[in-house]
Design brief:
Helix content is 37%, strand content 20%. The protein has 315 residues and is of the alpha/beta class. Strands 1-2-5-6-7-8-9-10 form an eight-stranded mixed β-sheet. The chain has a three-stranded antiparallel β-sheet with strand order 11-13-12. The chain has a two-stranded parallel sheet with strand order 3-4. Helix 1 runs parallel beside helix 2, helix 2 packs parallel to helix 3 and helix 8 crosses helix 10. It is globular.
Length: 315
């Protein structure tokens, strides 16, 4: 498996080419709700987990294909990981390469835990959009929902680092909060969260909940009506509840679709509809490929909240 995946239609970013900087599940959190599964290596070490040069070489090949017109031009190149991408010490070099060689927008998805580190903040300055998470600003529920590594800095330092970055950064910050029913959605949680959001001053606040099979079964989704009530309780901040995938933007040739689907399912569980919308494929074509992958035991079914998800058997 290479370091690039997609492009796929993203709920927030349109047509997005993903760059996966970490193998397996390397993270400084072991979140209750994580759709990738339990953390395999809980660490705060910043290092070159995959070769930065190899990531850049793959990006060069992709960009050459875009320039030639053989591949679609993405709306964003999104730096992410099967874990926490800012743990990769070469993330800044990757971002600076993209911005020096292209006019593409660069987004970074991060759990927001490393921003107390000045070097992390410097590494991210060349990006256009940072989407950090802050699932709780109250210590008790933060520990319960995110299960941070003992080596992590304090919650106060994390929030302070995000606030500092907002002052230093010239792009946009969209702060994501994932709420788990009866874990980080209480009155005290929301009161402290509102105070933290006022300090961080994100350009957008995005509320989310558990929508895919989580690492732990006890991670339950919030009701839509309750999310709306919580959204209305924030003042002075643009708040949105993250929606479903946008309209299809392009169609994939079937000869490449099997590989695309398997790549998606290696990274996270998806429903049949998720795959159709992300890859712009007809439902019947997706069904055929899912059946083929199931027959060869490369994927399996999981039922969550009454919906059928497919995921790779290699996790």
């Amino acid at each position: 498996m290479g370091y690039l995946f997609g492009p796929v239609n993203s709920r927030r970013l349109g047509l997005s080419l993903g760059v996966d900087l970490l193998p397996a599940k390397i993270c400084n959190y072991d979140c209750l709700y994580c759709e990738v599964g339990k953390t395999l290596r809980l660490t705060c070490d910043r290092r070159e987990y995959v070769p930065t040069r190899a990531v850049i070489a793959e990006l060069k090949d992709y960009l050459a294909e875009v320039t030639s017109g053989r591949l679609a031009r993405p709306d964003y190149i999104t730096i992410t990981a099967s874990g926490e991408p800012t743990l990769h010490a070469g993330i800044g070099e990757v971002i600076r390469f993209i911005k020096s060689e292209t006019d593409f927008q660069v987004a970074v998805l991060t759990n927001g835990s490393t921003f107390a580190d000045l070097q992390v903040r410097l590494d991210l300055l060349a990006a256009d959009l940072i989407i950090p998470s802050l699932d709780s600003a109250r210590l008790e529920s933060f520990v319960e929902v995110n299960r941070p590594a003992p080596c992590c800095v304090s919650l106060e330092e994390m929030i302070g680092g995000l606030a500092d970055f907002g002052e230093e950064f010239g792009g946009e910050v969209w702060l994501e909060v994932l709420l788990v029913k009866d874990v980080n959605d209480g009155a005290a949680d929301l009161e402290q969260l509102r105070a933290a959001v006022a300090l961080i001053k994100p350009d957008r606040l995005q509320l989310n909940t558990v929508v895919r099979p989580p690492a732990e079964d006890r991670a339950k989704p919030m009701e839509q009506g309750r999310l709306l009530e919580i959204a209305r309780s924030f003042s002075g901040t643009f708040v949105e509840i993250i929606a479903e995938f946008p309209e299809n933007r392009f169609r994939k040739e079937r000869e490449a679709a099997g590989y695309e689907i398997f790549e998606m399912l290696q990274r996270r569980p998806c429903t049949h509809q998720d795959i159709c919308q992300a890859l712009g494929m007809e439902p019947s074509a997706v069904t055929k490929i899912i059946n083929e992958l199931s027959e060869t035991a490369r994927i399996r079914e999981t039922i969550y909240d009454g919906r059928t998800y497919y995921q790779s058997t290699k996790r």
